[in-house]
Please model this.
Amino acid sequence: MTMFRPTAPAAILGLCIALGPAIAGFFIYKGILEAKRSERYVTVKGLVERVEKADRGFWEVGFKVAGNNLNELYQQLSKESEIIHAFIKSKGFDEGEITINSPWVVDLYTREYGSSGPLPPERYILENSIYVNSLKVDALNELATTTGEFIRQGISISRSGARFYLDKFNQLRPQLIVEATKNAQKIARSFAETTGSQIGGIRRANQGTISLGNPAESFEQQTHEEGNSLMKKIRVVSTIEFFLQ
Model:
């Protein structure tokens, strides 16, 4: 009887066929295990809040006169404009920080403003405004409280208000995001310790919300515009998912 002696290639082929199911089963098991691991993650929010002073301010004051003689009204308005302008400069503001607008006239006897009732005794209203745009935010904040001085001098103030801006906000943003991410990692690590796990890499990250608010109020109870406040509260909330090992 002739004996069959397998050649080396045939032996290798037979070994592969024999071990094939086992090897495939190992990789299937490993794939299932990795899939299970990928399902274990925790979602946390990292919060950071910081109070910063505005670095630029804008203040506007409007004033008006009323009467029937346009020439006299214009002279009166010009005089009041000079008074306000001189007062602003006395508070330490430079000429380049001050803008005086051109006056505008309202004729109450024209069809746009008139009515079917009796005409008002004064036909014309002349109004003007002066702006201050400055980096001297403390001085500007104080200036915004001095409109009573103009009223005492007989000037009719139609509006007055200051707004403050944080122009360096974009410079602060990266650092605040880093701090919020670190806080999220601390929370995730604390959670992992209570469950006997360890945190792994980041599964998903969302920069979240970045907002400015009035430091005197919580973000949930904001009733005043943050632009009116000299101090700004910056809030960054990042949402991050960490794998658990």
